[in-house]
Amino acid sequence: MIPDGFVRPPRIATWLVALFASAEKESLEGDLFEEFSDLASRSGAAVARRWYWRQALQSIVHLSIAAFRATPYSTTAVVIAGLLLGRALFPLTEKGIFAVLERYRVFDTHFDAYVFFATDGLAAAHVVTSMIVGCCVAFTAKRREMMATITLVLLLFGMTCAALLVWVAKGNAFMLWSMLPWNFLDWFAMLVGAAIIQNKRTASRKLSSRP
Amino acid sequence: MSSRDYLGEFEHLTVLAVLRLADKAYGVTVRQEIENRTTREVSIGAVYATLDRLEAKGFIKSHLGDPTPERGGRSKRFFEVTPKGIAAVNRTRRALESMSEGLILIRSYS
Q1: Cys-Cys link to A167, which of A52, A173, B75, B83 (CB 3.0-4.6 A)?
Q2: Residues 146..165 of A with a Cβ closer than 8 Å to B: which?
Q3: A5 domain-assigned
Q4: CB neighbours of B91 closer than 8 A, spacing ≥ 6?
């Protein structure tokens, strides 16, 4: 039973911390919960929520850096493998979609559908492929799933920024600007894929640790 | 002697906090001890990342307590400094003292 005046910590912040804390998840969550409840009863729910969010975000940064420092070489290898997997899968997705469009002669019979699949459909397929890449990276990077996937996303973000600068310098960045929202969606999908694998692993670890 | 035998700044603070707290050293108390004594904001994630690293080096050890309702049914993880950890604290302190010995430390530029 939940007592009167009970204030729950922000769920999203709790979920985010759980994604990044692997071995120490239970005790870290418990520590945050204990300090949050104490602060909420002393200073009010709003102050406690702000404190919780600040602690959660700072903790995520520290835990990610610590996880990378613990296994820098294997993490780098997993991230590069993820990058190459993306490079291999994205052209295959495009080829697959155009093969189907050609096979059923969509261009001749349903031109609007052809345009949709060749533009937004293709971008949506990229999002799904990104999620698969995120799953693969997280699956390979045991106990540092989110950190490895975030490193890959940051690498892709850096590459996109570099490409943007080059295209802006050449005066034809319009295409890249128009693709940016889809790029952000791709990266978000990678993180979602990693979060799915991380959650599955945590659930199976909990089950196996039960007596 | 390798650099692994010495403690980094935050590692040093963390081990000293665990020593001060004795059998009451767990995430919350360690974080608050460092925050209160250094007056700098410390995240629980930084404390755990450091404690994990120290445990991997064999400077501290930990054990889980019983789950408690005020923690939403989650266990506390208690920490304890090992003899190897105490030796590392002493070594680091001696190194710092040796480096600052004879120096006139300027307190302010005013």
Answers
A1: A173
A2: none
A3: no
A4: B1, B5, B6
